[in-house]
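Try it yourself: sequence plus adenosine-5'-triphosphate, in.
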Amino acid sequence: MRIDVVGLRKCYGQVEALADVTLRAGPGRVLGVLGHNGAGKTTLVDILATRTLPTAGTARVCGFDVVRNPRQVRRVIGVTGQATAVDGALPGRDNLVLVARLLGANPRQAGDRAEELIEAFGLGDVAGRPAATYSGGLLRRLDLAMSLVGRPVVLFLDEPSTGLDPVGRTELWRLVGDLAADGTTVVLTTQYLDEADELATDVVVLGAGRVVASGTPAQLKSAIGTRTATVRFADDRTAVSAAGLFSRVGLTAAPLERQVTVSLAAAADVTTVVRALDTVGIEPADLTVAEPTLTDVYLALHREQGVR
Ligand SMILES: Nc1ncnc2c1ncn2[C@@H]1O[C@H](COP(=O)(O)OP(=O)(O)OP(=O)(O)O)[C@@H](O)[C@H]1O
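Structure, out:
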């Protein structure tokens, strides 16, 4: 296992940031760590990245215990996120060379590694410019490249696409997907559920320092999420009366202008919707069924368990 956490607990004075967290991740997995502000995501990553010590429990990265072997842990991990490691006054190339030198490479090796990453991350045109002149997307790419200089096998990514435009996000997601395909284990902490939906092979949802749900996105969606049917009508008035009808037959329905969204919980399926309309002779203009997203899963957990 690349990441092996058992019964992890962390207290900051009276605050119990992590109560009892157990999780694992192997090579090539992208572990999405989700949870509200204060759920314990940063604390978990800080312990795994040896920035803070746990109060109890064990955490191993590539078999190295974070408390007993922090130096070995640091040698196999990369940390990236808010572009804090980038020196804006230096060109992108020099930032990469600097990191390589800090990791012990000689000038020639450092230059070679910088060129490899410049090429892999499409930074060739801007590598000679001070990083302060980069757009948000370029800066994120440089930050990610810098975290990969030492060829980490475990990479911690903190909200990697914050502030990126849709093209930048898609590009960054592709780069992360490629890393995982090459065997890197990625731990992704994010508030963006679509990001986790796109990237994560496994998800843990933290709530008040505990794991409140875990599994692959597909498992979570089928266990917790609810499919929805969206029915469109000719006009607002029909939509409102259809919504009332759905409620009377026990369906949860929300009208919005000419559209009604019906949640297809365990017992209900799309035929219940169609039959209900049929009994009163209402013709829908259109009907679509959508599979649940991670956002639906998260909101359901929030309702059921008060995930915070
Ligand atoms: N250095 C610290 N001293 C005291 N309390 C802390 C410290 N760091 C974190 N906490 C508390 O521990 C809890 C977990 O915080 P943590 O930052 O791990 O959550 P998070 O899920 O990363 O939140 P966010 O999404 O806001 O980053 C919170 O109640 C927080 O206030």
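One thing you can check immediately is this: The chain has eleven helices and 14 strands.
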